[in-house]
Amino acid sequence: MSFLGSVAGTLLAFNDPLVPTSGQGTFWMPESASTQAPFVDHVFDFITVLSYFFQIVITIVLVWFAIRYRKRKGQVNFEDDGPVHNTALELTWTLVPLFLVVGIFYVGMAGFLDLRRAPSSAYEVSVTAQKWSWSFDHPEYGVNQAGVVTVPVGRPVEFLMTSADVLHSCFVPAFRVKQDIIPGRYSRLWFEATKPGVYQLYCTEYCGTDHSKMLALVEVLPEDQFQETMGKLATEYMDLPEQDLPTYALDRLYNRCSSCHSLDGSTAVGPSFKGLWDRTANGETVFKDGRRLSDMIGPGKEFPEPEDYIRDSILVPQSHIVQNYAGAMPSFQGQLKERQVLALVLMMKYLDRMVDDQGNRIESPDLNELDPGMGEVEASAPEIGDENEFDAVATAGKGG
Amino acid sequence: MLLRPQEKVADMTTLEAGTHERPKLVEDNYLTHTTGLKSWLLTVDHKRIGLMYLVSVLGAFFMGGVFALLVRTQLLTPEGTIMGQDQYNQAFTLHGAIMVFLVIIPSVPASLGNFILPIMLGAKDVAFPRLNLFSYYLWIIGALFFVMAMFTGGLDTGWTFYTPYSTDTNSAMGGVIPALTGAFILGFASIFTGMNFLVTIHRLRPPGMTWFRMPLFPWSIYATSVIQVLATPVLGITLALLVVERAFGIGIFNPALGGDPVLYQHFFWFYSHPAVYIMILPAMGVISELISVHSHRHIFGYSFIAWSSIAIAVFSFLVWGHHMFTSGQSGLVSVIFSAITFSVAIPSAVKIFNWLATMYKGTISWNTPMLYGMGFLFIFTIGGLTGLHLGTLATDVHLHDTYFVVAHFHYVMMGSALLAFIGGIHHWWPKMTGKMYNENAGRFAWFLVFVGFNVTFLSQFMLGSQGMPRRYATYPEDAGFQIYHMISTYGSYVMGLGFVVTAIYLVASLFSGRKAPANPWGGRSLEWQCASPPPWDNFAEQPVVGDCYDFTVLEWSEKEQGYVWRSDIPHPDGSPAAESEGSH
């Protein structure tokens, strides 16, 4: 698929998931898509060619000696007229490798220092790594992205990264960059993408259960499309009518939940989202301390409405741990806007209209009429939050 | 008395036995000198302790190997074949922890070293025999703690125990404290063995064996012991701090408690990088013996090899930061560590060239130990050269924490250190057990192991440079990783089969193997001058020390099926060589 196709897909309808561009790499290296990559590749190739040379010479000598000087049948004793010592030869094979490695060291060091220092004009993205998802904030546009980060081509981009829990590491093979992410401090990583496309981003510092699912994509767009996308992302959930919020949540937000919460009913680190709304609305959920959700929902109780429980689980997940689960969920307080929380609640409610029993997406889900039988959407939405109020908070936050 | 043939010892025993009217002829050696379970469990004999270490270490190797095959099988498909995420994380953690702490670190020094080193020095035992037994039981206790870790919630931190993951009780599984305790105790086993060998080498060398007349194996053990004694305490302290943080919530490494996780990495690698040389240096010592004895050639550049061991031991303390180029340590620090790292490449390269030169104009036996020796030269060269990619700052940023690193350290730790250990087992098997194994089966198994190893790990270099991160239970389908994973997994099965064959013919040799002569290969160091298996006290009288790499004084004896002193050269102890043969 050409990058234009994937770009168009992103812009027109967000239910087409992004896939990494299948670029052409070499035998050793993956596709090269940053300004730093060619240099790294040259150093790599130089050392590799040197290694081939020494490996081949040593192997040939080894095999040649092994055959030429093999023990013949019936040989009972051994003449030993070979040298046992040769200072000139030994100094040669000490000093020649010494000069070679000094050279390699110097070249590698020079490139490394370049890798570390970002140009001051770099476009900054704040990255929060958290078990086991990535969150990307664009302070310039007030946009938050999850699972995918959109950056412009041909402009230096700097990630200012921190972790909410344990060590992580941000690795984009196509850019040849990697940097550990440490809780409680910031680390930086920069690159300048040279080709539009979609590139895989990995977590490369072991971080527990779903370490290998802690993936994200870097979407590199030409400048004008980048601006356009940022503009759209900045406002899209604000302007969406309520019936579009469930698909918005599934497309845009669910990939931060997906490593722990399945859609097909299979058990992972956390409970599956399949049937979660029914279990909640009927109060069937049982917690670690033995309490049942049905005893906690209702007027005057802890959760006036079932929606309040869902909201609570997203923002303060450690307050109620469901039975048989470890309680590994981090808090999303401050990372989601109120309307995004509402979108997630609605996504849970109407999940069975959007995905089938196997957890696969239904092509064009019917969400025009939100379930009249339940009749709670209209009633509960104001309780979750008066939108104007939250918009005001969000705006104030941005202004500050 | 040099090269005392087997029968002579047996004769003496028969005489003795006759006076006590013992019905059956029992050859007196360290295996039969005393009997009963207690005589083994409470023995202070270095040979028996060495043998017990060998059996225990091989048992742990089997376990670690099973975990390795589970890991490889899981990775056959992108979504994983047999395990969930948590099981996979436990499998690779236990594979790493067992192989590092229970297998490779004690492999050569504690088993082969314990057995061979005192005999090589013409001594009756190590300097502190009781400490030696104590260190073995520390190993057993440490191993039991690892087993306990598996049954108290499991262990999923990776063998590196990186904080804050390992100390956060919400993150890592419950087996962290038992595993840390186990590693702590194993550290003491390692320290005591090192101290014991240091004193043994200093104090128990026979008259005439100056430092530079020692075989190279003791040299490498000496360098290793220095590292063990100096570096292991740092690991002990670090692991104790981890336990304190996890158990009592005292903030040392966890930023949530005001600690510094990068500090942990410095502490950890301050031990664990030298530990890499604890693993490879003894293996290099084994290779020096294997190559010279089976090439029947004086070792080339003895003093360069000896000094390079010492140089590696010294440099090994100054390079730990190369594990942390992407950790966020300062750029200047990374540059300095990169520079020192390259300096370690030199003594390693020197050794390779010297071993090759030893083969020049030699008389090379193509038997199993020599095949392991030559395989080592090939594999260690790959391991060393790919270290250049990782020591270079610019390329390490891309390769760090990918399969390139996995392949690199398996080439050094498994392909070099462990296969040298296996080669050493073959080399000294006749000495330890008194039996010859089936040479053709040995060559066949070596071939399987060698080919299987290279198929398994060569493919992982491409996997890593293409961007596959390590410690992943699943991987993206569209990144082109699967084909390499499949090749790697099939290679690991071939290698596993090779080890099974090895186990079969070695065990079979105990029951049906030909009786081993005192000197089956034509070695000159002192262990080949005592009977196979050695008598209880190793030597009845102080052996005479000669040039341990001058093989021209030996000749093959059909009668002994082994090598004896040449009949046309007088014995260094004054008695004509022919005497021993003439006595029959």
Condensed summary:
The complex is a heterodimer of chains A (400) and B (584). Chain A has 400 residues and is an alpha+beta fold.
Task: Give a structural overview.
The complex is a heterodimer of chains A (400) and B (584). Chain A has 11 helices and 10 strands. Chain A is an alpha+beta fold. Among the domains of chain A are: 123-233, Immunoglobulin-like (Sandwich), CATH 2.60.40.420; 240-399, Cytochrome c-like domain (Cytochrome Bc1 Complex, Chain D, domain 2, Orthogonal Bundle), CATH 1.10.760.10. Chain A has a 5-stranded mixed sheet with strand order 3-2-1-5-8. In chain A, strand 6 (168-172) and strand 7 form a beta hairpin. Residues 1-15 and 372-400 of chain A have low confidence and may be disordered. Chain B is mainly alpha-helical and 584 residues long. Chain B folds into 2 domains: 1-30 and 517-584, no CATH class; 31-516, Up-down Bundle (Cytochrome C Oxidase, Chain A), CATH 1.20.210.10. Chain B is built from 16 helices and 4 strands. Chain B has helices at 6-19, 37-41, 46-74, 85-120, 129-151, 176-203, 216-248, 261-295, 302-315, 331-359, 368-391, 393-399, 403-433, 439-465, 482-512, 578-582; strands at residues 435-436, 514-515, 554-557, 562-565. The longest helix of chain B is centred in the N-terminal third of the chain and has 36 residues, at 85-120.
List keywords for this structure.
heterodimer; A: 400 residues; Immunoglobulin-like; Cytochrome Bc1 Complex, Chain D, domain 2; 11 helices; disordered N terminus; B: 584 residues; mainly alpha; Cytochrome C Oxidase, Chain A; 2 domains; 16 helices; 4 strands; 64% helix; globular; disordered C terminus
